[in-house]
Recover the amino acids of this structure.
């Protein structure tokens, strides 16, 4: 019995460990090797080149722009997602007729495959067939043929990409926060109401502080999704126009895979690892401290 | 200090169902400690929540201090409530918990501290102000909840089973403290409990509720000695009042009023033939379980006698004994409605 138990645990963990090692661990270590080597698609040798790749990407204006865009993309989408999902969660917590349907509809963007959703948005934001522009023209808010090019003008393209990303992440964050809200005992907001607190005082002095650990988890996931994801950008703009919506993952993909310079792609994609590790560590620590309380 | 009054107050949770609270008319007295007592599901907590403004009544009105507060939000009612769970704010220190109602009322910061100190010293928790609720024992939490309730000197206290989370020993001392505390601050208090001992010990008056309706309102001695109906008679007292049915009336008497016939008591008595089934010795008293035999009130259900342990009791299970009840200790109830009716002469039970 004892001998069998000693084997059972590791045996059941093994598939998961293999999966993570093969699909995450190996590529991750490989990326380190590539980033300090001179590997290109099709090349056979490997020469250690130290930090040359990192120096070269820093000299590249496209990289600096992608770095800036990554921060802009992450921070603005997170602010919007947090504000939006908090509002939604507070609304969905209340009982009203049709709440079940509304909850379902809000969850849809998360359930639908990203690529399908993004292709839908590509059509919605298309320069010729955009339904948004059609509505704006019909309402006489813009002139035909002078409608905004949602994906064609640098500023608008970035806004569109952020908006679609927010649309995609919002349900996930909403569900997490909704779960956090339901875990607050009903007595506590009621006590606050009797104690004389109005809606905003209860929200800012009672509900939000009690939600903090959950908000941290939602934000940690949100930041990581935003920093590491390129699906929306790849499908909507391919980093364009003129690389103005390029973020680090998409730039790494374009230069490393499509451009064939594996070493440079690896260097770009590894660039934010230290920063993300610190973010993850801090947030997990805050979450754990709050858990103990 | 204020008087609280409910007028035809009703709450129906699901349409077509009987009200959880059904047309309750209640009026407290100035500075009174009024206990709402009833089994779970009797509507006492719903009634309290409607008075607090946490539950919207289906119909009827709530008046506090001569003002109809029915349309008012909880925070406009100038009341304080202590919840069963205490509902302390877990992320705030004891000081900030107690200060919260003051902040919510816009009391200036420099005026808050003396008030918090006054409230916390009144409850003997002055040394705990820096702690978080999770670092407190059950009894300390309860005091913090009370301090938070009194700090802004409300016109009315609502307490929802505040002792039910304490262990039995602590509960007895907390009961006494609550009573003393009420004596000091003198605020009108509504206290919900399902524990008759708490109700009897603390209440100036007791409101006995069942199935959303008030069955009786009265001082502890009134509801115990003169129950308005069979529900009140059997809900109060442990063991409850014995009820014996005849074809036209129900007769009730308390276990402590069923004595051996040779015991000396004053006044006319009604004899009872009591066959003892088994006995329980509880130290200070002895509980005898049995049935009544002969007479017009032959009982199939157990009849209980409660004797002081100082009464010599050589009672053997299975034997028949002569017991008696004083006539004035017999209560008569209508068979149909269960309500009290006029006493009538009885030759025997």
């Amino acid at each position: 019995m004892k001998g069998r138990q000693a084997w059972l645990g590791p045996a059941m963990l093994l598939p998961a460990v293999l999966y993570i090692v093969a699909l995450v661990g190996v590529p991750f270590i490989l990326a380190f090797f590539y980033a300090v080597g001179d590997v290109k698609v099709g090349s056979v040798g490997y020469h250690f080149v130290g930090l040359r790749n990192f120096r070269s990407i820093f000299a590249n204006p496209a990289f600096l722009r992608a770095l800036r865009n990554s921060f802009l993309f992450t921070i603005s989408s997170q602010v919007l997602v947090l504000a939006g999902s908090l509002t939604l969660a507070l609304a969905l917590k209340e009982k009203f007729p049709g709440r079940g349907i509304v909850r379902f509809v809000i969850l849809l963007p998360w359930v639908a495959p990203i690529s399908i959703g993004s292709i839908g948005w590509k059509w919605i934001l298309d320069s010729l067939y955009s339904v948004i522009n059609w509505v704006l023209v019909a309402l006489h808010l813009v002139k035909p043929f002078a409608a905004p090019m949602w994906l064609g003008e640098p500023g608008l393209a970035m806004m569109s990409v952020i908006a679609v990303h927010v649309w995609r992440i919002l349900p996930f964050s909403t569900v997490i926060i909704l779960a956090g809200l339901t875990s607050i005992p009903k007595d506590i907001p009621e006590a606050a109401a009797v104690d004389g607190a109005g809606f905003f005082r209860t929200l800012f002095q009672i509900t939000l502080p009690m939600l903090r650990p959950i908000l941290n988890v939602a934000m940690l996931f949100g930041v990581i999704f935003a920093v590491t994801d390129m699906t929306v950008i790849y499908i909507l703009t391919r980093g364009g126009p003129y690389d103005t919506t390029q973020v680090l993952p998409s730039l790494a993909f374009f230069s490393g895979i499509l451009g064939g310079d594996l070493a440079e792609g690896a260097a770009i994609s590894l660039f934010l690892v230290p920063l993300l590790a610190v973010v993850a560590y801090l947030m997990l620590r805050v979450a754990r401290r709050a858990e103990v309380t | 200090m204020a008087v609280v009054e409910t007028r035809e107050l009703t709450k129906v949770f699901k349409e077509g169902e009987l009200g959880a609270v059904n047309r309750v008319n209640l009026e407290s007295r100035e500075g009174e400690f009024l206990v709402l007592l009833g089994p779970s599901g009797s509507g006492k907590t719903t009634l309290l929540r409607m008075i607090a403004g946490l539950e919207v009544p289906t119909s009827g009105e709530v008046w506090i201090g001569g003002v109809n507060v029915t349309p008012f939000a909880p925070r406009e009612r100038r009341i304080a409530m202590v919840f069963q769970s205490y509902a302390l704010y877990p992320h705030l220190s004891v000081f900030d918990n107690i200060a919260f109602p003051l902040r919510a009322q816009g009391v200036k910061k420099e005026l808050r501290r003396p008030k918090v100190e006054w409230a916390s010293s009144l409850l003997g928790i002055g040394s705990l102000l820096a702690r978080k609720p999770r670092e407190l024992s059950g009894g300390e939490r309860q005091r913090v909840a009370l301090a938070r309730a009194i700090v802004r000197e409300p016109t009315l206290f609502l307490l929802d089973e505040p002792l039910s989370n304490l262990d039995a020993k602590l509960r007895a001392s907390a009961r006494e403290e609550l009573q003393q505390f009420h004596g000091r601050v003198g605020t009108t208090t509504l206290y919900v409990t399902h524990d008759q001992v708490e109700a009897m010990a603390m209440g100036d008056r007791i409101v006995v509720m069942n199935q959303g309706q008030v069955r009786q309102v009265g001082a502890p001695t009134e509801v115990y000695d003169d129950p308005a109906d069979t529900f009140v008679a059997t809900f109060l007292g442990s063991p409850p009042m014995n009820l014996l049915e005849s074809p036209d009336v129900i007769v009730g008497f308390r276990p402590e009023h069923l004595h051996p016939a040779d015991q000396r008591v004053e006044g006319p008595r009604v004899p009872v033939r009591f066959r003892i089934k088994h006995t329980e010795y509880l130290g200070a008293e002895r509980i005898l379980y049995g049935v009544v035999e002969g007479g017009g009130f032959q009982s199939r259900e157990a009849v209980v006698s409660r004797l002081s342990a100082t009464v010599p009791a050589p009672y053997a299970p299975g034997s028949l004994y002569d017991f008696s009840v004083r006539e004035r200790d017999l209560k008569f109830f209508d068979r149909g409605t269960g309500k009290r009716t006029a006493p009538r002469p009885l030759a025997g039970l």
